[in-house]
């Protein structure tokens, strides 16, 4: 069985997405700091960026296809789950952006966070149902794919962002600051686990 | 993006993508669904690969195809299916792809 490297376009898109988002958020933060943007506009712009990130990640998610030999036992189910996740994130991103554009100032943070968390919840449940009993790696030599790890880390960070926004709206700054600390720890653990060399079957 | 539009403008290629939604399939399995010659089918596969809508892997003597469409491309595919969209110049150019690619032994 032979495979060849795939998805250079998706890999490039992921890199551009991460770099562009970081640059955009930093620009907005600086503009707010120097008084070019008021607090409300800056918040709205950052909300829009998160919506665009969610849509972009959802869009390219089904495009990152692993070789068959690197997949789990049932590539058909895995592909279906990825396509569903992609559609759900794109849809959620659209709703998220609409909320930040059109919802009332005092409620948009809570509503948008619930939209984002709801999308993650639905995708998680659907994924669990589709992949039930199919998670065994027997019959395939699972290998780490850095594009997928990149996408997974972005999604993980987005999940925390939505949760932090919600906690900030309901319980205030202090609770969300604790969440930042927990996020840094969990993210460090996750990255170290994901980048651990995969077991070799050769 | 123009390669994607070109790929989606042909009903045979759209049908191939619909079949691949059911899961990875070999070139022979896909070719069996159509009443067209093997060189023509190979040319269709080449157009889909060029548009980055499918990936191919060689398993022994057969070539297995997998769907590789983004959500936007999937929406374009549904849109093209719905309205039966077809370009005049959508016929594949025959072929600079080996005909053995559609054999499945």
What does this structure look like?
The complex is a heterodimer of chains A (202) and B (105). Chain A is mostly helical and 202 residues long. Chain A has helices at 8-33, 39-60, 75-102, 108-130, 146-171, 173-194. Chain A has one domain. Chain B has a three-stranded antiparallel β-sheet. Chains A and B meet through helix 2 and helix 3 of A and strand 2, strand 3 and helix 5 of B.
Topology:
The complex is a heterodimer of chains A (202) and B (105).
Chain A: H1 8-33, H2 39-60, H3 75-102, H4 108-130, H5 146-171, H6 173-194
Helix pairs in contact in A: 1-2, 1-5, 2-3, 3-4, 4-5, 5-6
Chain B: H1 2-8, H2 11-20, E1 25-26, H3 27-31, H4 38-50, E2 54-59, E3 62-67, H5 71-83
Antiparallel strand pairs in B: 1-3, 2-3
Question: How would you summarize this macromolecular structure in one to three sentences?
Answer:
The complex is a heterodimer of chains A (202) and B (105). By secondary structure, chain A is an all-alpha fold. Chain A has helices spanning 8-33, 39-60, 75-102, 108-130, 146-171, 173-194.
Keywords:
heterodimer, A: 202 residues, B: 105 residues, alpha+beta, Arc Repressor Mutant, subunit A, 3-stranded antiparallel sheet, 5 helices, globular
How many strands, what sense, and barrel or not for the largest sheet of chain A? none
CATH fourth-tier homologous superfamily of chain B: Winged helix-like DNA-binding domain superfamily/Winged helix DNA-binding domain
Radius of gyration of chain B: 13 Å
- Share in helix of chain A: over 70%
What's the SSE pattern of chain B? HHEHHEEH
Examine the secondary-structure arrangement and name the CATH architecture of chain B.
Answer: Orthogonal Bundle
Q: Over the alpha carbons, how many angstroms does the gyration radius of chain A reach?
A: 18 Å
How many strand segments of chain B?
3
Give the helix proportion of chain B (percent range). Answer: 40-55%
Give the domain tally of chain B: 1
How far is the first residue's CA from the last residue's CA of chain B? 34 Å
Strand content of chain A: under 5%
Question: What is the number of E strands of chain A?
Answer: 0
Which two protein chains have the largest interface (Cβ within 8 Å of the partner's Cβ), and how many residues from each?
A-B, 24 and 20 residues
What is the first-to-last residue Cα distance of chain A? 13 Å
Structural class of chain B: alpha+beta
Global geometry of chain A: globular
Biggest pleated-sheet summary of chain B: 3 strands, antiparallel
